[in-house]
Each structure stands twice: as structure tokens, then as C-alpha cells.
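We were asked to recover a plausible sequence for a given structure. The inputs and outputs are reproduced exactly as logged, with field labels preserved.

PROBLEM: sequence recovery
POSITIONS: 467
GIVEN STRUCTURE:
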């Protein structure tokens, strides 16, 4: 059976309140009753001791003060009885008590000179009373004593009235507590229901939801944790959407890159097959097929290389390498390509400067960036600079090429970014994977890479390797 949380809260609160009030009421009633009876006994004891003192001082005329005391005590609804050492009543109001029967333990106590106090006696006086028995001792011998008796009917009426007032207080307090409990329970249930509704919204795929939170209690902390969770889910969803968009763009880019060389190869082969290409042009056709085939192989290899680097499937062997030697290798390999574009490669590095890196991957990084500079520079200069600075090695590759729009700087690391530029009728760029691979390799070396560029004024790549 399903029970709403509101009813559970109310039931628990009411149960606790009823039990608490019941226990407090019983304890209070018991305490007040004991207090009243103890006060009554103390009052009777005080009167009795005062009477005995007067009797000892009055000598043979003891009946006169007894009569006077009896009248005074009667006004307070207290009876006075005296008895001798044998328990025979020697004085009582109107002879109401001709003989008093004391229990053995009471006789033993008064024989020792000790007073006896009884809060409630229900049998010996034909009514419920409180009484005090005070012995009269002469030379440590019991010569009699006196008994003060007060009916407890008045005390019971007073206690009954107190209990009645206490019941009223309990009912009023319980009503107020119940009202407060209902208000607070509804407030807590409303806050929990708000989280539940928000959870349903999130479950439906909507992450644009926010719950008011606070650090007042655990429900507020829960709301804060829920908001953080939704924020993380939203970030994850946005990342998934971005990845899906990139996946679709990647498939489109790959299809575009593969389609162009395949179309060229197919056209040349079909032209040769149908003898549509003259004999003097077939050699040129073979060269074109070879060139496009190499382009396809390079594209596939770069994609495989990129995935291996991104998934940490390569192992780096870092060794100290002279920067000047690496620059010389780059200059020798790319000098002919630079000359075709009218460019000059200038090396600026000291012999003693070194870099801690994997040799093959460092060559790959520098070749990719330098090729990029050659492709986007015409009749200009490309500088290769390197120096050691404390625990770092700084390498700069700067050109005087066409530069990059500052808004597009972050996009150059994206796969096939150059392919996008080529579709915008830009004559430069090939597969567009080079800089993506460069960034991954630099990160594998625990290094950083940044770009400074301005349209029409060239581009500078700054790579920092820890040493």
C-alpha cells in the first residue's frame, strides 16, 4: 500500500507529539501530586513540633493549649489527637477517636523517638488522610505522642483541577504543534515534489532546468547537487552534440577529400581505356594518376596516424636533441619546395641549445608546420628559431605569408580545416590533418603550442617543450 510522504510526516510528528505530551503530563502530574502531599506532611510536622514544644512548657495545664490548638487546626481542616505510651487516646476533637491503632513498624519508629509521616492513609480513619505521628520523649522514654490528621479530599480536588488545566494545556499545545507540523510537512513535501518534477523534466531530455537551492538543510543540499548534476549532463549532451556534428563533418570532409583524387584517377583510366587520351598525353595522365594515388595514401596514413596519436597508441622516446641539427634537416628537406614558391628558410639557433623530445616525432612536428608556412607564403621568408630558457625549450616558426583571421585561429587545429578553406577557392592546403597531428604530438610531449597571426602580415607558431 502506497502512503504519501506528507501523511507519513504527519503521522510521525503526531505520534511523537502525543507520546511526548503524554509522558510529560504523567511526570508533571506525579511530581505535583508528590509535591502537594510532601508540603502537607511538612505542614503537619511543623504544627506537631510546635504543639509538643508548647505542651512541654505549659506543664499540668496542657489541655488548654490542646483545645486552643484543636480549634485553630480545625479551621485548617486538621484533626489533633494525643495518645499515651500504650496507644490510648488522651485527647481528640469531640472524642472522635477513642483509640488509635498503630502498626508495629510505626511503634518501633516512635519508640526510637522518630516521627512517622504518611502521605496517604486509606483505612484507619474511615477516610483517606495524610497524617504525621510525632512521639513525646522524656528522658529517652516514650510517654506518648500526638497525631495530626488532614483529609486528602481537598488535596485531591486541587490535583484534579490542576490535571484538568494540564489537559487543556496539552490539547492547546497539541493543536498548535499539529498546525505547525502540517505547515512544515507541506513545505518539505513541496520542495521534494519540486525536485521530483525537475527529475521528470530531465528524464524527458530537457536539461534547461534549475531548482532554487540553499544550505539550510539536506533538501537544499540535494537541490544544489541536482543542479550540479543537471549542469554536468547538459555539458555532456552538448559535447555529444558537438562530437556528432564533428563526426558528420568529418565524414563529409573525408568523402570530399577521397572523391576528388578518385574522380581524377577514374577519369584518366576511362580516358585511356576508350582511347580518348592522345598518346602524347598518356604519360602526363600516368603522372596524374600516380600523384593522386600518393595523395590518397597520404590522406589515409595521416588519418591512421592521427587516430593512433589521439588514442595514445604511440610511445615516445625522449632524448636531448640539438636544435640546430634538427633545423638543418628541415631546411634540407623543404628547401626545394620553398624555392618553388620563391621563399627563403632562415635558421636562427645556437649549437649548444637542445630540446628534450622524440626525434622522429619532433621532425614530424616541424615539417608539418614548416610545410604549412611554405604553402601560405609566396616570395617571402620563413624563420626557424630555437633556444633554451631554464627548464624549457622554445621553438618558433614564423613566416611572412597571408596570415590568419584572428577569429579562425582556434579552427586551424580542427581536422580538415584546410579542406574547408580549399573549398572556399583557396589555392593552398592539402588534407588539413597536419596541424591536428602537430597539436596532439606536442601535448604528448607535455608541451604547449600557440599561434600569433594577423591577416596579410604572416603567422608565428610558438612551441614550448619542458626540458
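RECOVERED SEQUENCE:
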Amino acid at each position: 500500500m502506497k502512503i504519501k510522504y506528507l501523511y507519513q510526516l504527519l503521522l510521525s510528528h503526531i505520534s511523537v507529539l502525543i507520546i511526548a505530551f503524554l509522558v510529560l503530563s504523567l511526570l508533571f502530574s506525579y511530581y505535583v501530586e508528590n509535591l502537594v502531599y510532601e508540603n502537607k506532611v511538612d505542614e503537619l510536622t511543623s504544627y506537631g513540633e510546635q504543639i509538643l514544644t508548647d505542651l512541654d512548657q505549659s506543664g499540668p495545664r496542657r489541655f488548654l493549649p490542646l483545645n486552643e490548638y484543636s480549634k485553630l487546626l480545625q479551621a485548617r481542616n486538621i484533626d489533633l489527637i494525643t495518645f499515651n505510651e500504650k496507644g490510648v487516646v488522651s485527647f481528640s476533637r469531640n472524642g472522635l477517636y477513642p483509640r488509635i491503632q498503630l502498626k508495629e513498624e510505626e511503634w518501633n519508629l516512635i519508640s526510637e523517638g522518630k516521627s512517622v509521616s504518611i502521605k496517604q492513609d486509606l483505612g484507619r480513619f474511615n477516610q483517606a488522610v495524610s497524617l504525621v505521628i510525632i512521639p513525646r520523649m522524656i528522658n529517652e522514654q516514650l510517654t506518648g505522642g500526638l497525631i495530626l490528621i488532614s483529609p486528602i479530599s481537598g488535596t485531591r480536588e486541587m490535583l484534579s483541577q490542576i490535571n484538568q488545566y494540564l489537559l487543556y494545556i496539552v490539547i492547546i499545545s497539541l493543536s498548535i504543534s499539529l498546525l505547525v507540523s502540517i505547515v512544515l510537512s507541506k513545505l518539505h513535501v513541496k520542495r521534494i515534489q519540486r525536485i521530483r518534477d525537475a527529475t521528470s523534466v530531465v528524464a524527458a531530455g530537457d536539461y534547461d532546468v534549475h531548482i532554487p537551492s540553499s544550505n539550510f538543510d539536506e533538501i537544499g543540499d540535494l537541490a544544489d547537487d541536482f543542479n550540479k548534476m543537471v549542469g554536468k549532463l547538459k555539458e555532456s549532451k552538448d559535447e555529444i552534440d558537438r562530437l556528432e556534428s564533428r563526426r558528420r563533418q568529418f565524414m563529409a570532409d573525408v568523402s570530399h577529400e577521397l572523391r576528388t583524387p578518385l574522380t581524377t584517377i577514374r577519369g584518366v583510366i576511362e580516358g585511356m581505356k576508350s582511347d580518348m587520351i592522345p598518346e602524347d598525353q598518356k604519360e602526363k595522365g600516368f603522372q596524374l594518376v600516380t600523384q593522386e594515388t600518393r595523395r590518397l595514401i597520404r590522406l589515409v596514413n595521416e588519418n591512421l596516424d592521427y587516430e593512433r596519436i589521439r588514442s595514445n597508441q604511440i610511445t615516445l622516446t625522449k632524448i636531448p636533441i640539438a636544435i640546430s641539427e634538427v633545423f638543418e634537416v628541415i631546411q634540407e628537406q623543404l628547401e626545394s619546395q620553398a624555392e618553388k614558391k620563391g621563399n627563403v628558410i632562415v635558421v636562427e639557433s645556437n649549437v649548444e641549445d637542445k630540446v628534450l623530445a622524440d626525434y622522429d616525432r619532433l621532425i614530424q612536428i616541424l615539417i608539418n608546420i614548416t610545410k604549412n608556412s611554405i604553402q601560405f607564403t609566396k616570395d617571402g621568408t620563413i624563420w626557424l628559431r630555437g633556444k633554451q630558457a631554464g627548464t624549457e625549450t622554445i621553438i618558433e616558426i614564423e613566416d611572412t605569408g597571408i596570415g590568419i583571421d584572428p577569429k579562425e585561429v582556434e579552427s586551424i587545429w580542427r581536422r580538415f580545416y584546410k579542406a574547408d578553406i580549399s573549398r572556399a577557392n583557396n589555392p593552398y592546403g592539402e588534407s588539413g590533418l597536419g596541424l591536428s597531428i602537430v597539436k596532439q604530438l606536442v601535448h604528448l610531449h607535455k608541451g604547449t603550442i600557440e599561434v600569433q597571426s594577423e591577416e596579410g602580415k604572416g603567422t608565428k607558431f610558438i612551441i614550448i617543450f619542458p626540458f
